[in-house]
UniProtKB/TrEMBL annotation:
<feature type="binding site">
    <location>
        <position position="18"/>
    </location>
    <ligand>
        <name>Zn(2+)</name>
    </ligand>
</feature>
<feature type="binding site">
    <location>
        <position position="277"/>
    </location>
    <ligand>
        <name>Zn(2+)</name>
    </ligand>
</feature>
<keyword id="KW-0479">Metal-binding</keyword>
<comment type="similarity">
    <text>Belongs to the metallo-dependent hydrolases superfamily. Adenosine and AMP deaminases family. Adenine deaminase type 2 subfamily.</text>
</comment>
<keyword id="KW-0546">Nucleotide metabolism</keyword>
<protein>
    <recommendedName>
        <fullName>Adenine deaminase</fullName>
        <ecNumber>3.5.4.2</ecNumber>
    </recommendedName>
</protein>
<feature type="binding site">
    <location>
        <position position="196"/>
    </location>
    <ligand>
        <name>Zn(2+)</name>
    </ligand>
</feature>
<feature type="domain" description="Adenosine deaminase">
    <location>
        <begin position="11"/>
        <end position="327"/>
    </location>
</feature>
<keyword id="KW-0378">Hydrolase</keyword>
<dbReference type="InterPro" id="IPR001365">
    <property type="entry name" value="A_deaminase_dom"/>
</dbReference>
<feature type="binding site">
    <location>
        <position position="16"/>
    </location>
    <ligand>
        <name>Zn(2+)</name>
    </ligand>
</feature>
<feature type="binding site">
    <location>
        <position position="278"/>
    </location>
    <ligand>
        <name>substrate</name>
    </ligand>
</feature>
<dbReference type="GO" id="GO:0016787">
    <property type="term" value="F:hydrolase activity"/>
</dbReference>
<dbReference type="InterPro" id="IPR032466">
    <property type="entry name" value="Metal_Hydrolase"/>
</dbReference>
<dbReference type="InterPro" id="IPR028892">
    <property type="entry name" value="ADE"/>
</dbReference>
<keyword id="KW-0862">Zinc</keyword>
<dbReference type="InterPro" id="IPR006330">
    <property type="entry name" value="Ado/ade_deaminase"/>
</dbReference>
Amino acid sequence: SALPGLLARAPKAELHMHIEGSLEPELIFALAARNGVALPYASVDALRQAYAFTDLQSFLDIYYAGASVLLHEQDFYDMAWAYFEKAARDRVVHAELFFDPQTHTARGVPIGTVIQGLSRACADANDRLGVSGALILCFLRHLSEEDAFATLEQALPWRAHFIGVGLDSSERGHPPSKFQRVFARAAELGLQLVAHAGEEGPPAYIEEALDLLGVERIDHGVRAIESQALMARLAKERVPLTVCPLSNVKLCVVHDLADHPLPQLLAAGLAVTINSDDPAYFGGYVNDNLLALFDALPRWGAREAYQLLRNSLEASFAPQSQRAAWV
Ligand code: ES4
Ligand code: ZN
């Protein structure tokens, strides 16, 4: 069919990807050698073999270990530039990148090193690849709200270099309510607000993210499928869900793509988008996600493809003037 080509060539936005999750094993080993960092894996292949996850936590343990090779501004630049080159090939016209400053500041890397490296890659992606990039600072929810506050304050000298804040890491036992005050502070600063909710956590966490944090989009949100009332609300309010199909399979959130709740979410009128989450760990970039999904869902065609890609552009935080040129 013509669909794979259409999906690959159509302009799209990527709204849910963790830049540390784009570190390919080859780049992890190259940066480890460049920086003299010892890795607990003998080879690229041995590291890739470890990518067999049973849940979110089993992934996060390896993901934080991989990020330990990032020390200098150039390392953050090289990581983000490698992602933008792949995004451009996938016809991503706009990408909003999550980054986890606490993963780096805890190892003694200054937050300015992280933000400057990533921000310079965004500027170059815009100039050389025609991909507009923006940064969203994520708080690690397994750490305290006090630690999140300190991170936000440390980032303020670079306020102009990021557009919003998010919430990621271990969801269960760390509800959005834990971060109500720091999100209120971020809102005062004029930052956009998003949060991971309803990946492993219950539908109530999605409601908390909306009602207590005031988020504009929900990252994942697939467990909304368990609550008819919540589904109706998300559809009525057109709250975008940034869904990551290959991630959901790799972390055992869904059994396989053919069982994914996406068809029901889309049919119920939710503004769902397709994203890669941690592309180096979960089996591919945004077009790999789209192709695998449409392959697993034979009832989906051009109508669904158009809707999903239009949703991604409309749900982005790009200025209205820029979005008007896309849709
Ligand atoms: C993540 Cl898939 C996922 N969920 C929560 N936090 C994350 N950080 C990176 N990937
Ligand atoms: Zn994520």
